[in-house]
């Protein structure tokens, strides 16, 4: 029956997603599932910073530690508008590796792939999104939240929502 097949595929996908990235090879099914999961995570996060003042958000139990270590290791990194080279170049990867590895066992799935906005004043679009590890996402987004860079998204959403309320109640 089709439902049993669908359930079997879902179980296989769940099992596959629990493996490290290197185990995937180039399986298009797994890539598609990963892309859907990453997109869903991105949407949830963007909705969250649109509806709650990001300065008060806590993304993990280790936010303080992540932020402290991030700013110790990357004190000059420009985070409002990221340069993909600051994540992707060989020298950047060398610098990120020890930072990321210290969160193995501290942040669940710290090395899973996720989507990160380049310009934090904008949403998730193809041009404004880069692939990053989960701990890179947390480090940069916690810093953006604490340093006020994500407030623009929240304030824009608040203005849009109050304009909509005025129109509907007018």
TrEMBL record:
- InterPro entries linked to this entry: PBDC1-like_dom_sf, PBDC1_metazoa/fungi, Polysacc_synth_dom
A GO term from the CC aspect: cytoplasm
According to the entry, every stretch annotated as the Polysaccharide biosynthesis domain falls at 30-154
Q: Which residues form a coiled coil?
A: none
One Pfam family it belongs to: PBDC1
Name under which the protein is recorded: Polysaccharide biosynthesis domain containing 1
